[in-house]
Amino acid sequence: MDNQKKCLFEKFGGDQQVSELIDQFYYKVLFDKLLREKFLKADMSRVRYQQKRFFAQMMGDSNTQYTGRDLIEVHKNLNINNQQFDKFKTHLKNIAKDMEIPSDDIDELLLHVEKHRNLIVFQK
Fold first, then answer.
1. Residue 62: what pLDDT?
2. How far apart are CA 21 and CA 12, in angstroms?
């Protein structure tokens, strides 16, 4: 398959790699003083499951349908600020780098994530 035709999900290596990315990500988040308080009351296995589905769909996997709650619904009472959103992106970027994902693909992922900022950040 020509690399131009592959969606980001495939470029990242499919299901297993995206799963790994999200697992590593939440491992980091739960040790991050800036972010972990947002997840103290969360069912983390559910959060990870929904996030994997969301990322797979966002990254172009046509076989995955995100069926979780609306992003605004989920985040509006969490008081997430821009600094926390940026930190979230930094963790994602660093983990993807550690996984040796090409930087163009990481940039594309971060662009997708950035498009959702206004559905997640409510603490201006």
1. 94
2. 9
Question: Which tokens hold the place of 54?
Answer: 């969301």
For residue 114, give Cα distances in angstroms to 13, 53, 119: 21, 17, 10
pTM over 0.85: yes
Phi–psi pair at 81, nearest 5 degrees: -105, 175
Helices (H), the chain: 8-12, 15-29, 44-58, 71-75, 82-98, 103-114, 117-120
Query: Residues of the chain whose pLDDT is less than 70?
Result: 1-4, 124
Query: Within a 10 A sphere around the Cβ of 3, how many other Cβ atoms?
Result: 8
- Which pLDDT value is given to residue 82? 97
Residue with tokens 């959060």: 47
* Of 82, 22, 32, residue with least CA distance to 58: 22
Local structure of 81: helix, strand or coil: strand
Query: What's the pLDDT at 4?
Result: 63
